């Protein structure tokens, strides 16, 4: 078959365009204003399991009344296959379909681009992954919308991290609201947040916290400073602090025996969260035990002399 120079140039340019689009890691497809899909790139076909390549450039020419003869059968065949296959709604997660449909209808009515996050099913594994979809219209010279271009970027790893952070934050909030253990968040030497349990334990209040009057160095007795500094050095190098016993100087000057451990916050390495257990009851029991043993020892020694 003899082709004209214009047809050859068009075909070569079209192949280069498809090769470029197919090389992109994003999932790309093109839809008509009626919502039917007329083109997907290789990344989408690999992800969805749809094997057959097809052309959107021919669809562009058809809508302009300029479709080359070579593409007529190609376009009609694959457009019908895509419409029958109906993978556009089927690959969306059921929980995301209504929201995406609402945005799509609004965009088609106004002609405005939009972006949305939703989950798409992997045709090979059946698993759903999060994608950021960016949808924009393609217009002719008269300003009429011919096609809508859709580009989807995989953001599943980011979503998983956000979910883990959200779960961690829920755990932190639960501990902060706990009456069982004192919880503090410190940046450098200053406490920037604490739960009510810790404030009650040490006699401080929220105003003291806001005005920066709570500092772990100032609240640590001199004899405990060396061990406390060593614990903070461990926190800086290992992102955790092995629990140890120390004392805090309370607001009224009294001393509070505690057991304390800490970890670096994953969202901000300059901050750490500490868990403080009131150890005064155990210390009092130990003191009573030592007093009792001292009395018994004294009594036995006294009787042995008789």
Question: Helices and strands in order, then pairings?
Answer:
Blueprint: H1 5-23, E1 27-31, E2 37-40, H2 42-48, H3 57-63, H4 69-85, H5 87-90, H6 94-110, E3 114-121, E4 128-139, E5 145-154, H7 156-176, E6 182-187, E7 190-194, H8 196-202, H9 206-210, H10 222-238, E8 240-249, E9 255-265, E10 268-278, H11 280-305
Antiparallel strand pairs: 1-2, 1-5, 3-4, 4-5, 6-7, 6-10, 8-9, 9-10
Structural description of this entry:
This protein has 306 residues and is of the alpha+beta class. The chain is 48% helix and 27% strand. The chain is built from 11 helices and 10 strands. It has a 5-stranded antiparallel sheet, with helices on both faces. Strands 7-6-10-9-8 form a 5-stranded antiparallel sheet. About 11% of the residues have low confidence.
Keywords:
48% helix; Beta-Lactamase; 10 strands; alpha+beta; 2 domains
User: What is the oligomeric state here?
Assistant: single chain
Beta fraction of the residues?
Answer: 25-35%
CATH architecture of the largest domain: 2-Layer Sandwich
Using only C-alpha atoms, the radius of gyration works out to 34 Å
Low-confidence stretches: 53-87
Basic shape: elongated
What percent of the residues sit in helical stretches (DSSP H or I)? 40-55%
What is the name of the CATH superfamily of the largest domain? PAS domain
> By helix and strand content, what is the structural category?
alpha+beta
- Mean pLDDT across the residues is 79
- SSE arrangement, N to C: HEEHHHHHEEEHEEHHHEEEH
Terminus-to-terminus distance: 129 Å
Helical segment tally? 11
Number of domains: 2
Strand order of the largest sheet: 2-1-5-4-3
CATH topology of the largest domain: Beta-Lactamase
Based on DSSP secondary structure assignment, what is the total number of beta strands?
Answer: 10
CATH class assignment of the largest domain: Alpha Beta
Q: What's the main sheet like?
A: 5 strands, antiparallel
Protein name: histidine kinase
Pfam families: PAS_3, PAS_8
GO molecular function, one term: protein histidine kinase activity
Enzyme class: transferase
């Amino acid at each position: 078959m003899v082709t004209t120079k214009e047809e050859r140039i068009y075909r070569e340019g079209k192949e280069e365009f498809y090769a470029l689009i197919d090389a992109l890691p994003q999932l790309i497809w093109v839809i008509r204003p009626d919502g039917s899909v007329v083109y997907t790139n290789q990344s989408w076909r690999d992800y969805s399991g749809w094997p057959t390549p097809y052309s959107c450039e021919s669809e562009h020419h058809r809508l302009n009344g300029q479709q080359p003869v070579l593409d007529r059968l190609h376009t009609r065949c694959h457009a019908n296959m895509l419409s029958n296959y109906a993978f556009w709604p089927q690959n969306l997660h059921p929980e995301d379909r209504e929201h995406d449909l609402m945005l799509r209808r609004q965009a088609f009515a106004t002609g405005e681009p939009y972006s949305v996050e939703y989950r798409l099913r992997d045709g090979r594994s059946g698993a759903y992954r999060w994608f950021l979809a960016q949808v924009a219209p393609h217009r002719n010279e008269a300003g009429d919308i011919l096609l809508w271009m859709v580009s989807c970027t995989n953001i599943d790893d980011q979503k998983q991290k956000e979910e883990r952070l959200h779960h961690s934050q829920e755990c932190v909030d639960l501990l902060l609201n706990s009456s069982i253990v004192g919880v503090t968040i410190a940046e450098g030497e200053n406490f920037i947040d604490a739960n009510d349990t810790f404030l009650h334990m040490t006699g401080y209040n929220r105003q003291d916290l806001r005005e920066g009057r709570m500092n772990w160095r100032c609240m640590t007795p001199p004899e405990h400073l060396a061990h406390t500094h060593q614990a903070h050095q461990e926190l800086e190098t290992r992102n955790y602090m092995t629990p140890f016993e120390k004392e805090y100087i309370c607001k009224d000057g009294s001393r509070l025996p505690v057991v304390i451990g800490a970890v670096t916050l994953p969202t901000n390495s300059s901050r750490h969260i500490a868990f403080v257990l009131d150890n005064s009851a155990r210390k009092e029991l130990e003191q009573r035990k030592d007093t009792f043993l001292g009395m018994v020892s004294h009594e036995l020694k006294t009787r042995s002399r008789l």
